[in-house]
Amino acid sequence: MTEPPGLDYPRMVHDALRDVVRQALAQVAEEGLPGGHQFVLAFKTGESGVRVPPFLRDLHPEEMTVVLQHQFWDLEVDREAFSVTLAFGGARHRITVPFAALTAFADPAVPFGLRFDPAVQQARGEDAGRPADEGTVPAAEEASGPRAGDAAKVVRLDRFRKKD
Length: 164
What we know:
The chain is α+β, with helices and mostly antiparallel strands. The chain is built from three helices and nine strands; from the N terminus they run αβαββββββαββ. β6 and β7 (112-115) form a beta hairpin.
């Protein structure tokens, strides 16, 4: 007997996590970055649709981390990607990053963070994110943001739920 096609819950969760990043960036594009918030975004520079200046791709052939805090301009967000102008070496350059290329997102001011697992993405033949464990979200370790090889600090969501 053939099993009926199932619901792809992991993909749904991954899409929802990417949408969290998209919504946060879209809100900042509309209203500006509130208070002490900052966004740390890591992404694969070789992924399809990533546009960075050649000198940055040479410096970061696999992965790059950028911070949106005080000096960023012209943030634009659509369903598939975001574009922003940042200063590198004193000169402004525009980058475009599809959400599928993200490897991490953090807002250390809260703290809140997500890590996107490329191995899971490749196993399913798509790009997607996932939380570290069910019911937990990895948080950024420090204001400098997520780095490859660092262990994630896990924040349990039930800590933030109101108790009756």
